[in-house]
TrEMBL record, chains A, B, C, D:
EC number of this enzyme: 3.5.1.2
Keyword Hydrolase: yes
Gene Ontology terms for molecular function: glutaminase activity
Name of the molecule in the record: Glutaminase
Taxonomy, superkingdom: Bacteria
Residues bound to substrate: S63, N114, E158, N165, Y189, Y240, V258
Recorded catalytic activity of this chain's protein: L-glutamine + H2O = L-glutamate + NH4(+)
Subunit structure, as described in the record: Homotetramer.
Organism: Shewanella phaeophyticola
Length: 310, 310, 310, 310
């Protein structure tokens, strides 16, 4: 089946699931999104991007930004400097739990739970003069879309409701694992989360994860080994407390956000982004996961010889 | 590099690590193993098994048996019957923790932690007339080695020190998630753990995980989809609390045992087994992990085009 | 007000609360009790016992037996031998939680939660030839009622549903803090719990706690110092997860059971027992607590000069 | 024995314990205190204050201030308003643990752990125009010592190291159980903790707890019932994770601070304050506890007829 048809089929197939999940409601700016939006885009290793549904409409990428943050940190710090401060293991707890951070004395389990992403944001703050500006620059280059921008309303609104993240940051500070001013780092962190990008943007931006670390523009943003490592972390910890289920059903490294987006990677083949705002009980896009599952099954059977890789 | 040389190189490369880990000491039968043993074997999709070091010497497979148990259960129960009683998520806790089982009301996180494996053993006990006999039969067929047998001394010794596993089983029973007589199921469980197999045996026995569910003898023991699912579970939960690190360094679905063995899979290419009795702090073979890391790096660069799959 | 009237008033005052709690339903033998039963008895330091309501009707004393067990253990072991194996602190967890026992490596917080009481039962088993027989003997002497007996149906029924307690016992055994055979100790433990005694019986039996360790018969079963210590433990840990609230409202050392009984002590003045089968959310008799609160307020104002002791 | 001699004996008796504990070292201002200081003072119900050792030397009262805060809150809010926001139960966790606060969704267990005291500080901030000023006023009146003052160095220093308390406050805010600006409330809270008072001051200031709520000046600062309730809370939750042991050994409602002070109450008889900077593993003054134990034993035998109250 031509890929374009496959994407359209994925959208059509899962549309009946709309209404079965729940849009993230903790801030008004997210709660007001149209729950019927649904889109998918892929960028294949030859550099082509195609999509179906609302794949050109920007949405709030939220935790998907944690992939960009970690990638940026890998350009500023040695591996040791990073992994001394944050672990590489699945959390086994709800994504914003303080229990684990306290029991493990201030070291978050991985860079994709909130605690770990705050550590990465703290690292960026320490080495970058203008981290918000730099992040925007990087994301625009990766996605080849100069119109990508922060949603100030979302960023400000999240900061208003940031008590739990502040609590996590101060807890890590109490263990000596947070250097910056908490409010400053939180503001940067929420800006990263507030990035508005479309499925097309995100599939292009994540292209390097499918392409041994090389971006669409041909720059090596991370090494091939680092790419493999990033994908390993995404495969074990990218989907909050649903990583096992996602591996079981979809079988791709991936990262979700409460805005309803999920990016996923078939190394050597393509980067994918799906979007549908309603979430399942683990906080992952319900219809988005189903689209990825459909794609995985179809490609596994038809196009890619070795795609049954797990 | 010819594969035979690669295996020998892996053994030679990691031998200096001997002495840096710790042999499992909770029962004498395990504590007395020679800590300097080291072996590796692979079985490639063409059905050839080669090895290096002590790859023909049987050792106690311990938790590696959990892969066989789950595979057997998939032949006796529907998916729903299994996954209603045990989850698919990484545990985020030490492998024999009761905390998670209590907090999640008797449902273990996955079938590869002790609690989950006890559920699987309970399932086998309920549907098999002679589960210990049947397990032996299956393992002998899979490994094509009729001499594989239980180590009664190990099984009995583990039963003597089974208080923690009994505690876990009774806890699940108190939540209505354990049907059988605890002592009976524990005895079966410890027999499975006490299986003595060599690296060659295990790489042959796990061949189906690399071969879309088909055994060396050509039987489909699980479907291709189930194979992908088993590998997904192994990738996220097969290495106790070190699954993230293992994915990061090695990037293969795998399962370890406290006897020092680790099996790993490159789907479509080969099944692997390494053995070295000394363990790291997560309870995984220290030198064994290093051998797999070496293999992963060497193969990634040289033989398999798509092997950088994560 | 004469004491007899006070007791009758307490019963009448709280009767409207009947129907607001919940009878313990985990075994049929307990679930079938008449929820409208209500009684109170006091034994004053002069040795007189008076009561009101159903104060002569035997009921299942359940966890109140933990006071007898600990008292018996104090006669068989040194303080050090006891407190090395069980703590003296409030638990801060639900009364049958394994989490605390695991986090604190097999040492229960105090002798009045299930885990701690199992340790005490284990101690009794180790030093007494016939612990069940001896317990009956002691309780009959203390209550001066030779007709006190075990309820075999309750004891057997609890043993049938003992998975959680078995889990706790095996967990402690896995940490080296449980010596006996788990089933044997559990059977003794459930026998102690199944004792049937009336409010009158219990107020007489607990007399020594109000009388510097001397029983109604004049024997010193514990020393004055031990009496003070027992009362201290009851004051901080006797009411499951409601000890603080009970101290706040009632202000007496006390011990409750899920059969709906509560014993309480005004040292130097009287021992009290109330009974009403319906429980509050902490597992303490709802109307029973209210009767004790009434008594505390009335006595505080009227009879006992120093009764505002805390 | 005359009381003056008793106090001197207590000091002499425990002096050999100096050197066996550890001075609180988390801020320099506390770490630099002379570890050999030791003092005791009592104020009997007739209003007389006597003391021994360094009983006139001011020290940092730290968590003892939580008694004053709660007392002040009882004058500003209804009971319901207070106990809806903070519990009355022993915590069963280390005194500054976030685990409990998270598991119990933002409601601290009692007003004497840090989390609970921060709630009380938040309540004071909301209703008092100048809470720090008012607190000073109250404490000066209660102690009849107009020279009592805050130690700005200590208050500022604690604020510098307040990450963990900030984390707790933000966590409660995330559950909707913290109204004020976190920094503002923390600053007030640390001021209360930084109060410098002598044993004599504190025994006088706590007089109302022994005197049915009436201060030395004759004002009823809390009602007799509230006094009994305060003492009940102190008896079950006043000594961090050592409340059970303290009840067992000393048998008085009490409150400790990491500055090495402990106040204790014999209702109807006297208020007591001991001071010795070295702490035991629970964070309570080691020699201070021993002095109270000595006093308790001596008075129990000799002066107070009914003092074996538990």
């Amino acid at each position: 089946m031509p890929e374009q048809l496959l994407l359209q089929e994925a959208v059509d197939k899962v549309r009946p699931l709309l209404g079965k999940g729940k849009v993230a409601g903790y801030i008004p700016a997210l709660a007001n999104v149209d729950p019927n939006k649904i889109g998918i885009a892929i960028t294949t290793v030859d550099g082509t991007t195609i999509g179906a549904g609302d794949y050109l409409e920007p949405f709030s990428i939220q935790s998907i930004s944690k992939v960009f943050s970690l990638t940026l940190a890998l350009n500023l710090y040695t591996e040791e400097e990073i992994w001394n401060r944050v672990g590489k293991e699945p959390s086994g707890h709800s994504f914003n739990s303080l229990v684990q951070v306290e029991l493990e004395r201030g070291k978050p389990r991985n860079p994709f739970i909130n605690a770990g992403a705050l550590i990465i944001a703290d690292l960026l703050q320490a080495r970058l003069g203008a981290p918000k500006h730099r992040m925007l620059e990087v994301v625009r280059q990766l996605s080849q879309d100069p119109s990508v921008t922060y949603d100030k309303t979302v960023a400000d609104s999240e900061f208003q409701f940031s008590a739990r993240n502040a609590s996590i940051a101060y807890l890590m500070k109490s263990f000596g694992n947070f250097d910056g001013d908490v409010d400053t780092v939180l503001k940067s962190y929420f800006h990263y989360c507030s990035l508005k990008m479309s499925c097309a943007d995100l599939s292009r931006a994540m292209f390097y994860l499918a392409n041994r670390g090389k971006t669409l523009a041909g720059d090596e943003i991370v090494t091939p080994v680092q790419t493999r490592q990033l994908n390993a972390l995404l495969a074990t910890s990218g989907l909050y407390d649903g990583a096992g289920e996602f591996a079981y059903r979809v079988g791709m490294p991936g990262k979700s956000g409460v805005g309803g987006g999920i990016i996923a990677v078939i190394p050597g083949d393509m980067s994918i982004c799906v979007w549908s705002p309603e979430l399942d009980i683990n906080g992952n896009s319900l219809a988005g996961t189903a689209m990825l599952e459909h794609i995985s099954q179809q490609l596994g059977r038809s196009i890619f010889r070795l795609f049954n890789y797990y």
